[in-house]
Amino acid sequence: MAIKSAIPVDFGAFFPAGAFMVGEVERVIDWTEDGQQAGQQHDKVSGKPMWTVRVIDADPEARKGQGEVSVKIASAVEPTPPPEMNGLPFRPVVFDGLSVTPYVKEGGGRPRVAFSLRATDMKPAIAAKRGE
What we know:
Elements: E1 7-8, H1 11-14, E2 19-27, E3 29-31, E4 37-40, E5 50-57, E6 68-74, E7 91-96, E8 99-105, E9 112-119, E10 121-124, H2 125-130
Parallel strand pairs: 6-9
Antiparallel strand pairs: 1-8, 2-5, 2-7, 3-4, 5-6, 7-10, 8-9
């Protein structure tokens, strides 16, 4: 049996040491086959616009090159990032509805398995711990 869609995963299983958003929320741009911008990408299932955030994985054992990932969020409105921590560029976050889609990434002459991450919502980590 082949898996034809994203694999649901618990936030704590994928980010056991937590996650920190860096930068800003950005629109995911859709492109035409000839390389022209075609507006904002929309989720194929929900039809909602797609947004992306850069995330630092707080796992101290993450290998080189695996410490930063992007998480795409399908949302009708631009997700609101949590406040920065005391002027630092890091924002502790939790993702609801997290799913992983594995794919083969070509590069450097050696294919490897990579993961595309999607979520349905992003919350401040502190609010998530309080149960909000």
